[in-house]
Protein: Catalase
Amino acid sequence: MRIKKLINDLFLALFYFERRIDPYYRATLDKIFRKPISTLVQALINIKRKDEHLRIGEERLLPNEQAITEGIIEQMSLFLKKHYEHSFVLRAGNTKTYGVVRGEFEVLPDLADHLRQGVFKYPRTYPAWVRFAGPGPLAPPDIKDNGVLSIGIKLMGIEGEKLLEDEKWTQDFTGISAPTFTTPNIVENLKLQKESLAGTPLFYFINPFDSHFLDAIMQGLYAKTQSNPLEAQYYSCVAYLFGDGQAVHYTMKPGSHETTKIPRNPSANYLREAMANTLCTHEVCFDFMIQFQTDAFRMPIEDASVEWPERLSPFIPVARLRLPVQRFDSASQLVFAENLSYNPWHCIAEHRPLGNQNRARRAIYYQLSGLRMKMNKETRIEPDGTEVFDDE
Structure:
């Protein structure tokens, strides 16, 4: 085990070095090679997959799904207790909070009838708290751990019964800055959590007897030294209902092509500083777009390692997320940010999460959030958008 840990740490040291030189070549590399490599990797993933002949929007439970979910919760709980026993407990995933910012989620007018579902039924604007974060499961200086970022959008003032009852008036949307997830399903995710607890997560990908090399390539194509969380595109990676019998992926695409320069000697929190510098001068907008499932095999619900091809179903804009000029990095607002709970099951029935990763998230996110609150001696809060901070 010690040798395995040493090998893991050696690879991490190489990744840290790459993060330092990444900005000098990555844009060119992505422009030339990302698409052809992704196409090849996706073809290899699909060759290995079995067609289960599911219908559009249809789910299929995995064998022992509840036990696997409980295993993931156990491993991640042990991780939190191991690393945060004597300190403030951070989230077990999407760990480092760069900031939670005020937003306005505007449903576009004149949507086609089939697009007017759930919160998108009428053209109105919802207040939102939007969280930008790093991958985790720890929170080192940004330059060491920012390859794939995450976003959580919490809309408030949403009427209707919620599928998770701890919040009554919210609707959450979550995503990461890669179109596929780290693991294809929760069976493999449990393996990753075991390696993470042992301190050897890289062996999940490079184990020659149980290879996840193709998934590693897909993540690597999008993992890079980030310049500013406000400039990344985010993807749901997993499916959601969109009304009756329609399944969708969604993406949040920045409206600007602006690129922040990465500091030569970045501070430990340079990504938060980049966000703060942007939002102190001008607003930021994201287009919220959905992609309908039109082929149940090529666009699977139960396998999050497969990117849904845009040639089969393009993304359609349905809303716009506006982040106005603001200050968000005050001490009290950062405390508020850590107390928020994001869960895709904070939703109305029209947007129910689909697939085994999402089904597991209901219990995983809720129970780990509860454990974190308990260890930090805090209580769960539901925001309403009227929050004011003393040092704003």
In short: The longest strand covers residues 97-107. The beta strands are 97-107, 125-133, 150-156, 170-176, 234-235, 240-241, 247-254, 284-292, 316-323.
